[in-house]
Amino acid sequence: MRAVYLDNNATTPVEPRVLEAMLPYYREHFGNAASRNHRYGWIAEEAVDKAREQVAKVIGASSKEIIWTSGATEGNNTAILGVARMYAEKGKHMVTCKIEHKAVIDPCKFLETQGYEVTWLDPDQTGCVSVDQVRDAIREDTILVSLMFANNEIGTIHPIPEIGSLCKEKGVLFHTDATQAFGKIPIDVEAMGIDLLTMSAHKIYGPKGAGAVYVRRRKPRVRLQPIIYGGGHERGIRSGTLNVPGVVGCGAAAEIALQEMPTESVRIARLRDRLWAGLNEQLSDITMNGHPEHRLPNTLNVSFLYIEGESLMMGISDIAVSSGSACTSASLEPSYVLKGLGLGEDLAHSSIRFSLGRFTTQEDIDYTIDQVVEAVNHLREMSPLYEMAQAGVDPSTAEWQRH
Ligand SMILES: *Cc1c(COP(=O)(O)O)cnc(C)c1O
After folding, report:
1. Is 75:198 a contact under the CB 8 Å cutoff?
2. What are phi and psi of 375, to 5 degrees?
3. Is 180 in the pocket of ligand 1 (CB under 6 A)?
């Protein structure tokens, strides 16, 4: 038996080259990057500056526009709450989408309890929000549009440049949670009209607990009210002693991702397509969720009709994937993302996300195809839903129950 990791959208292993870059900053170079009076501090500060350049380069930003955070959850909170508080006098309306990551949804929901109004756009069946939907949602008092670059569950990529230029035209700030897109597909904050952007190191083979938010400094100069107060680090936007090894790892991971993007994105997309082709060839009644083209190279989300994602995951227990049924709670509520696409409960319940990565091999994919086909066939043989369907009953009318 072998173990296959296809849950790279949840997290990635730290790449050996990244760990090598980090280790000296745990050992001899342990200084505080804010210590201005001695060598220990200077060495740490120099490393932090280099990492800032490395992250900035991936998105065509200037290193002065990079603010270190503990990851994308903090980055999204920093951007959304920061804009809300800073621009409250200009307006209290924001636009976002129903299938954003919780790290965008929850701060927006919090703002709704604080007198702000949020327009929650409905994506289409592929997970896309259109420029026209955003245009229709923008009002006189709109201060922020926050839409993710690429969706973590289905991989769908939004029309970011078009939304960015609309926001410029309307004078509204544009934030994008680019956690899944950063380092995987090309991003240019200038060409795409992005004012704020969130990334996280652990999704790109860097360490957990490190990340950054890009904050535009000119045309326009974006100002944020901090959510953390203290020593005034990071232009006063994010106080606190920097996690220097984490920051160094984030920078190294960003540089490698940028270098390898042209070859890796092609290699990984081929493997993803091989996985889909293999499954589709051998199994009936499966559907692909998300956009067929405008999609991350590494993400494949599939609904296997008549079986439950959770049961399928148990059937392929040496392959790490994630399912569209909530694994975070005891309930069998299907994923809000898949429900948000307008998929029926049955399709949402039966979905599996395969997210490939830098260490995925063709052998991994071929093994996965075999295992999934076997498990699906086995489960369908036992499935009352499958039996009902064969007998001509519509399974979508069946009730899902806790067991
Ligand atoms: C993983 C993820 C986050 C959260 O990032 P953390 O660094 O783990 O806090 C936010 N948004 C998206 C799209 C993600 O995939």
Report:
1. yes
2. -65, -40
3. yes
CATH topology of domain 4-8+261-388: Aspartate Aminotransferase, domain 1 (3.90.1150)
Question: What are the sequence ranges of the domains in the chain?
Answer: 4-8+261-388, 16-257
Q: Is the CB of 177 under 6 A from ligand 1?
A: yes
For 16-257, the fitting CATH number among 3.30.70.3040, 3.40.640.10, 3.30.470.20, 3.90.660.10 is 3.40.640.10
The confidence score (pLDDT) of residue 332 equals 63
Atom of ligand 1 nearest to the CA of 178: 13
Q: Which residues contact 210 (CB under 8 A, 6 or more apart)?
A: 68, 69, 70, 71, 200, 201, 202, 243, 246, 247, 249, 250
- Distances from the Cα of 301 to the Cαs of 224, 297, 344, in angstroms? 36, 12, 15
Instruction: Give residue 72's pLDDT.
Output: 98
What is the 363 CA–ligand 1 centroid distance (Å)?
A: 29
- pTM for this entry: 0.95
Identify the pLDDT of residue 323. 87
H-state helical runs in 192-327: 244-282, 309-315
b/e string for 237-260 if b means 16 or more Cβ within 10 A? bbeeebbbbbbbbbbbbbbbbbee
